[in-house]
Amino acid sequence: MNFNTTFSKKPALLKGEGLPEYSAITPEEVNEHIPSLLSQLNKEVEKIEKELEKKLQVKELMTWDEVMKPLYLITEKLRWSWGLVSHLNAVCNSKSFRESHARQQPEVVRFSNMLGQSQVIYKALCELRDNPLESLNATQVRVLTAEILSMDQRGVGLRGKQKEEFNSASEKLAQLSTAFSNHVLDATQSWSLLLTKQSQIQGLPDRALEILADAAKTAGDTNNGEEPSKEKGPWRVGLDMPRYLPFQTHAENRELREVLYKAFVSRASNGEIDNSGLIEEILILRQQQAERLKYKNWAELSLSSKMASNVEAVETLLEELRKAAIPTAQKELKELQNCAKRHGALEASELAAWDINFWSEKLRQEKLDLDQEALRPWFPLPQVLDGLFNLCERLFGISIKQADGEAPIWHKDVRYFKIFDHNDKPLASFYLDPFSRPESKRGGAWMDECLTRRKLNSGETVLPVAYLVCNQTPPVGQTPSLMSFEEVKTLFHEFGHGLQHMLTTINYPQAAGINNIEWDAVELPSQFMENWCLDRTTLFGMARHWQTKKELPEEEFNKLVLNNKFNAGLATLRQVHFALTDLRLHSQWNLKLGITPDQLRRQISTYTSVIAPIEEDQLLCSFSHIFAGGYAAGYYSYKWAEVLSADAFAAFEEVGLDKKEAISSMGKSFRETFLSLGGSLSPDEIFHFFRGRAPTSEALIRHSGLTN
User: Per the count of CB atoms within 10 A, which of 16, 171, 522, 668 is most buried?
Assistant: First the structure.
């Protein structure tokens, strides 16, 4: 069946169920049908409010199905349709689609605010929690508690002018976040540099040269009328990761590394796409929103729904990691400096930021004899997928089968897979959009929900469907996507999120999969899966040369294991710097401080960085996680969850990673807890079920190599 030309009679954007018909969603469809959807949903909300109001007036006790089911159906219709628009805006970005998204977003925010501020619905939720007609289970109570807190934080208790200001600020914040993201995308897309001399590309591996020559070809560049080639050029370098990172890591031309680095760290910091003003506006609006809701600041608001109890608890964790990492990072920097001097470089100057990747790679090769770029041929995407899928079968008793052609897709590179239980019972499915498309696709990697598990009135179960999106090195010519080891880890990471979404057994959609999980625990399964990239059985099951089919040499495996702790101090310190900057911006910064957000960040860098940021470094202007994503006052979650994930993986280490039956048994336990229970219980409870105790940071410190 040709899914791209066969559509249902209902407009594709309003189908509200099943897999979307992506190619039917145009900017015109968005502008036409989102307003009609919102109009219909408003009517449905009015109807529900009238029914609930009657019950409240006569003090009639209510059931879960009377209150929660109709409310969910309304929010699900909006999530399905608007989620589809947001998804396509991220993976098929264009000027016209961006404009249609921006045009409709304010009304979507208004509707969400209206629903979140309904006095009748709020009272009904409180009554259902406190005086239900039928007793509620722990999951239902947890969902209700979270929903009531969410409504509190969406301004249900506000009145009059304060409510108007709150709603106006909510709309503005959504607009600013979208603009921030668009500016970063535009800045990344718009900058490139054409290289025509061999001296400019000295040191770059063939794979990187192929990508740069392919980019030149796409841009219409020629070599005296001939098509660009990796051997003769020209080569066009850019700021997207598949081009930027290999250049910074391997290019011997220090001046060009400096040019590229300065362009990268100054993205979206000047001209019409300067994000610095947006940053201050976002921070001020968030502070005002928090104060309207009776919180001291946005960080306090954010943490009220997370595992971490308060700002002090987060600061304590970050300080522990900072103190452990600083001496290691200083030692690592000294080693890099010495390495550069041994090679006759930097005689009269200190190591600069654009030297770190280059000399790290040189030192890595010296100490470990590891050339990561040279290992790409052992990690072609198809084999990595086989290895990942085999691991999931080994750990969780599932099978994953390709189902290309059985679902509509949004780009020719997108794959579709189905997941089955050990008895071939369908469990879930997922899309994989693996390759970088800097002209139309947001950078980074993520998992998102396409469909969430739930039970229909008919008794049928809607099976979950996930979006898995990466930005790895694309194929070139007849050569498949040859992945760096970091790209392998990224794929495993996102698949961990996907597993939690897809293997849930909770039939309450509000708590199924990743829903209702505290933000600082949601990275647990993803970081847990990264550990398996260095598991011997897993790695040798996927690492074979794409041409010779030879297994990765044993010595290269040992180097990768050692490499896991290489420059761990610098890496840890970098994450602490990001997390502490985020936390302080949302707990301490305000106009009365008399400094800019960037100046505050630079103050923090004096004790969280071993190389001071250069003048051009405007990190905040491209810090999409906190200004255009969901990580505001929550970037620390990566490290918080890493404590949990390292401890969880340690349970497998303790029974023996080479013990097949023991690993299978432990994997079953992991699936039945973290992957199955979703947000039905608190992360603390689930961790206790799995580990039999509270988490400790011991495993993380050991895995990070920060112990003396």
Answer: 522
